[in-house]
Specification:
Distance between the termini: 42 Å
Number of domains: 1
Largest sheet: 4 strands, mixed
Low-confidence stretches: none
Number of strands: 8
Number of helices: 5
Order of helices and strands: EEHHEEEEHHHEE
Structural class: alpha+beta
Strand order of the largest sheet: 1-5-4-2
Strand content: 5-15%
Shape: globular
């Protein structure tokens, strides 16, 4: 999956030194602080963007596996760990998880991300629906990247993403619009904003709700 892009990489195998459970406050706090310092933004903005990065790392690989192979690694919060990458960030690692059918992906991703939403909100008072919107945005981005490289899988990729977007915390976070290049089948527009426009020099994301709101 790593061939699709860096967010699709998921480390497997034995435990490595200095790793932390998925919802441990240490990597969550560290990442929020790092994003805030790097971007010069407020803590709530940093928490939102840090969570979006975490979500992209967690949803992309199992989603791609479900689309391309009809099965996904059975990830759950107690089986995923963060470890330091060479660039100082955090990478997810799992052991040797069993596989589940693609139909189980919506429930799997909802249960995987829910405690991480709680962990981030325990550090910074950021809206729960905003964070779930970030997760949905990460999934839609994974769909776009996957289809660009595997256009023959566009229908399956769209149907799988739709199933996730209609389940649990993902439900109601956005709407599906007619496709806009490079999307095929549909383009996603969220119903919340990740707050990137509040980063100095930032702007609006491609799927942002703000341009669609009345002035």
């Amino acid at each position: 999956m790593a061939r699709i892009g860096p967010f699709f990489a998921l480390g497997t195998g034995p435990a490595v030194p200095a790793e932390w459970p998925l919802v441990h406050p240490e990597p969550v706090r560290d990442r929020i602080d790092h994003v805030g310092t790097a971007l010069g933004c407020a803590e709530r903005v940093a928490a939102s963007l840090a969570f979006q990065g975490f979500a992209a790392r967690l949803v992309s690989a199992p989603y791609a596996a479900a689309v391309l192979h009809g099965a996904a690694p059975e990830l759950h919060p107690g089986a995923v760990f963060w470890h330091r990458s060479e660039d100082g960030g955090w990478e997810p690692r799992v052991g040797e998880p069993p596989l589940v059918e693609a139909a189980a992906l919506p429930k799997l991703l909802d249960e995987l991300l829910a405690p991480l939403v709680t962990a981030v909100r325990a550090q910074v008072p950021v809206a729960e629906r905003l964070l779930w919107g970030n997760a949905a945005s990460a999934l839609a981005a994974a769909k776009r990247l996957l289809v660009v490289q595997h256009p023959a899988a566009a229908g399956r990729a769209a149907a799988t993403a739709e199933a996730v977007l209609g389940h649990g915390g993902f439900a109601g976070t956005g709407e599906l619009l007619p496709p806009r290049d490079p999307d095929l089948v549909w383009t996603f527009r969220r119903r919340s904003c990740c707050l990137y426009y509040r980063v100095p020099g930032g702007g609006l994301c491609d799927d942002c709700v703000l341009p669609a709101r009345p002035a």
